[in-house]
Amino acid sequence: MKSVLHKATTRGHADHGWLNSHHTFSFAGYNDPERMHFGVLRVLNDDQVAPGRGFGTHPHDNMEIISIPLEGDLEHKDSMGNTTTIKEGDVQVMSAGAGIQHSEYNKNADQEVKFLQIWVFPNKRNVEPRYDQISIREIEKENAFYQVLSPNPDDEGVWVHQDAWFHLGNFQAGATDTYQIKKEGNGVYAFVLEGEVEINRQKLEKRDGFGLWETDSFDFKSNTNSRVLLMEVPMSLSQTGR
Fold this sequence. Notes:
Layout (H helix, E strand, L loop, with lengths): L1 E5 L5 E4 L3 E5 L17 E9 L4 E7 L3 E8 L1 E6 L4 E5 L2 E6 L4 E7 L6 E8 L9 E6 L9 E6 L7 E2 L5 E7 L4 E5 L5 E9 L2 E3 L2 E3 L4 E5 L3 E6 L3 E9 L8
Parallel strand pairs: 13-14
Antiparallel strand pairs: 1-20, 2-3, 3-4, 4-11, 5-10, 6-9, 6-11, 7-8, 7-10, 9-12, 13-15, 15-22, 16-21, 17-20, 17-22, 18-19, 18-21
């Protein structure tokens, strides 16, 4: 097994006034050659958007973009005609494919919105752009990881053009679980949303990231009440269709 630890305090940081963002991997003005990506996981941004502010209309292409709200309401509009609101308990995916434009704004004038912005390289280029969002309220579990994203449109959660699986878990102190890798050659990047946990005896705290690869499984323990996101992705960029 190989691993990499990214403590929360080592992330890139940008404060634009209306946007306070922490970057696990190189993004915009933050550039670290040692932290360009984890396999096909290219971007993991931890964003806070001021009341009534947001990202104006801008383009994307050939990227799978996943948004996971943690607090507040985020209003989404795109060139496919979608106008919707995503909030805590939802997961959104946008396959930018051949090209798309979109905007995202904090819908509320009296509170921040906090969300994860995640980019994954796709395994097919120039696909027809696609948008989807789900509520995870009916599939979430306690003290176990549950799937919120996969490569299969018929599975639970949203789907992407990549051999990737995302799981969330809400755990009470003392709870344990074991994660099995879904596809040979994949790795898992764990991101702690709340609490303190251990993965294969590596202690992790809030907003720490920990990547593991060249393994079939790993053990998980929650030392406090916690919430964790697991992102299983191919480790080779040759699997991106680039």
